[in-house]
Predict the 3D structure of the following.
Amino acid sequence: MTFTAFDSWWWPYLFVLAAGTLATDIWRFLGVYLGGRIRDDSELLVLIRALATALVAAVIGNLIVFPTGALADAPLLLRIVSVLLGFIAYLKFGKLVLVGIVVAEAVLIGGLSLIDLNV
Amino acid sequence: MNDDALANPAGPPDHFRWFFRGMVASVSVPGLILISAFVGFAGLAREAGVSVAQAVFMTGLVWALPAKVVLIGAIMAGSSLPAAALAVALSSVRLTPMVVALMPELRSDRGRPLTLYLLSHFVAVTSWVIAMEKVRDVPREMRTSWYSGLGGSLVVANMLVVALVYAIAGSLPPILSAALLLLTPIYFLTSLWGSAREAASHYAMIFGMILGPLFHLITPGFDLMAAGSIGGGAAYLLHRSRKGQSTE
């Protein structure tokens, strides 16, 4: 029952609907239903947010350490340093997402260009 | 109950005008940053072997980017449907409190519940941030029209972005391809850090980023769930203990 399990054209779409749409909209609908009945700072919500955040962070970590495609050809150290410097710049300069993106990309592109020149 | 909801004295032109203003509100700094994130998503989807039609379909019907990135991660890992659904569901619980916070703003006496359920699909970080900031300037009766314009144009614009970037991603030089694939992690690292409400979420990010790759080596296929539950649980406990003995 994986994404590529069946050859039929509709299977991937059904997979996305079940594992993607249903799995996200169910929480949105629950939010509409609960309306103003739940407090935003309740302990349960703090725990739930922590679990959800750690899960997405795990995906981020995997995308950096075990990337696919062209990014996999960049050395692990360069990938980590790019993200780290981007993140530090983000923290230092007013927590602007755009600053983090620009710095991380500049370090990666600069690093890859230097490697290209040396080989 | 009130049939005159159809014969609204404000009339359709007014609703249309506020729908249009919602569309205009989507043109913003968070909106532009979101587009850059979808540029990254298109590259990621291509690398994962997802077709362009499937990637555009995903953009419209899942919408929340963290959920889609987890879904792509599950597809790449070869997870089964139930395992993928569980991981996506766990990553999306955060949508509930966001919708809970937004609904009192969108609700009006004339509004039908169905409208709110349909509109809730547009809720993801960016449209939510813009809406929470600007919805108070919109007359209450017009707020659902306004949010339709805002959410709808963000979804449609990014479906186009995904189709476009997917088409050109294959012909990029290797260095730009690598840069494209770095967009998703750096975007999420910074935007999630900024949207965290409490220290628990910051601890959770640090633990998750370390545990994710670690569990990828130990238990591939189950790495996201393991890192999410152990990292998130530990972050919550650390948060509780550092808050002191305030056992309310």
